[in-house]
Design a protein that fits this description.
166 residues, mainly alpha, 3 domains, two-stranded antiparallel sheet, 61% helix
Length: 166
């Protein structure tokens, strides 16, 4: 059966309808008309609607790290186009906008990470490290020179935390 979707400009869709449905998969958003009807935006342009559905259903939408990376890349590209003082003065507005965007995205990312528990407070991290060292010390108590081994492990853990902080 042919898809029943009709566009007022191009006419009826020429695709085959999805099994058990009146429309093709593209016009029912992944074959689920109920899901399509619950979308916040009912975008008319077919290509934009498909792209919107792709973004809406993406698992990584809870993070905005990719957007931060894109904004930083744009900032870098814009900075690299500056050759003279006149270029710098002309770029001040767009650069400021990009910097504010990056700041807002970074703040939002931090809030999201905190909300979903992706961040660990420093005291919590230090407690985990301390508990880990205590466990290692207890497990190695019968090994000769175990204090030296535990000291080396502790120093390495502190170095890892210091480098992560930077």
């Amino acid at each position: 059966m042919q898809c029943q979707y009709v566009n007022h400009v191009t006419g009826q869709c020429k695709r085959e309808a999805a099994p058990g449905l009146a429309n093709c998969a593209l016009h029912t958003q992944s074959g689920d008309p109920e899901k399509f009807s619950k979308r916040m935006y009912m975008i008319q342009n077919h290509d934009r609607r498909i792209r919107h559905a792709t973004f809406s259903d993406h698992d990584e939408l809870r993070t905005i790290r990719e957007e931060i990376a894109i904004a930083r890349t744009l900032l870098e590209e814009r900075l690299n186009t500056i050759k003279t003082d006149a270029d710098l003065i002309a770029a001040c507005g767009p650069l400021n906008t990009l910097l504010l965007t990056i700041e807002r995205l970074t703040t939002s990312c931090l809030k999201l990470d905190t909300t979903v528990g992706n961040l660990m407070a420093k005291p919590t991290l230090l407690r985990i490290a301390s508990d880990t060292v205590a466990i290692i010390l207890q497990e190695l108590k019968d090994v000769p020179n175990h204090e030296e081994i535990v000291d080396k492990i502790s120093k390495r853990m502190v170095n890892i935390m210091d480098s992560a902080e930077e």
